[in-house]
Write a structure and sequence with these properties.
50% of the residues lie in helices and 16% in strands. It is α+β, with helices and mostly antiparallel strands. Helix 1 packs antiparallel against helix 2, helix 3 runs parallel beside helix 4 and helix 4 packs antiparallel against helix 6. It is globular and about 75 Å long.
């Protein structure tokens, strides 16, 4: 008859301490999430309500120019709400383990072209360019999810780059993987932040990041998508204020 080995008191205490620490960390994450999301939801709703109220005033006779400007603001805030809700739904699916993938051949050059065209429409004040990626091979993946990952990287570059700055997309083919990158001229990332930046709700703590809308989910979602493709996501930067280059890699499809 096998007897169970008693757990030493020291090991039990250490395990209990680790469990308590993990619970504390998760509670802190939850509190951060609720705080950030509440703020991010309330801001566009308040702006939409204020501008809609302005347009509906019975005593006002707004010019077409004013109506157009107010309408554009309302539309932009609705887009902001849509992006936030989409991120929240994606996060909920990830946490529930319901990230369904439909794998098939993906033309990365074509996909990058679509992503950059959409980014230019969203951010006309940025110079968004793409290097020649026509030689990138076909990869196996979920086209919609890869588009989401790339869009998140580009949106991150847009958020943290100065107006008039250049954002560059490119790619290369290596023996066992295909690498795509998004390079910006923004706030940069310190060495101790490079791993944490892909964690849920984590944002680099700078004045610009505190003033920039977002809940810190885009890079986390990007990393999860890449891991599901047996790839990875990472960042390289020479430090704060010196820009960043975000990379994703995918396994090459055997010829």
């Amino acid at each position: 008859m096998n007897e169970e080995r008693p757990v030493p008191a020291g090991e039990e205490a250490r395990a209990q301490a680790e469990l308590t620490e993990e619970r504390s960390r998760l509670q802190e994450l939850q509190n951060t999430f609720v705080s950030i999301v509440s703020h991010e939801l309330q801001t566009p709703v308040a702006i939409i309500k204020a501008y809609a109220g302005t347009l509906s005033r019975p005593d006002a006779n707004w010019s077409p120019t004013v109506v157009q400007r107010v309408g554009a603001t309302i539309e932009a805030e609705c887009d902001r709400l849509t992006r936030l809700i989409t991120d929240l739904l994606d996060l909920a699916r990830i946490q529930a383990g319901r990230v369904a993938m439909t794998f098939g051949p993906v033309d990365l050059a074509e996909l990058l072209g679509e992503v950059i065209e959409q980014a230019r429409a969203r951010a006309p004040e940025r110079r968004i360019v793409m290097e020649d990626v026509s030689s990138l091979p076909i990869v196996r993946g979920d086209s919609d999810k890869l588009r989401m990952a790339l869009t998140n990287l580009v949106d991150n570059a847009i958020k943290y780059s100065p107006a008039g700055g250049t954002i560059t997309l490119g790619g290369s083919t290596e023996p066992e993987q295909v690498v795509v990158w998004v390079r910006d001229e923004g706030i940069g990332v310190s060495s101790d932040e490079r791993e944490r930046i892909f964690e849920r709700f984590h944002r680099v703590d700078t004045r610009l990041s505190r003033e920039t809308p977002g809940v810190g989910m885009g890079l986390y979602i990007c990393r999860v998508i890449m891991e599901a493709h047996r790839g990875r996501a990472w960042v390289e930067s020479e430090g704060p204020g010196r820009g960043s280059t975000f990379f994703i890699s995918l396994p090459r499809v055997p010829a």
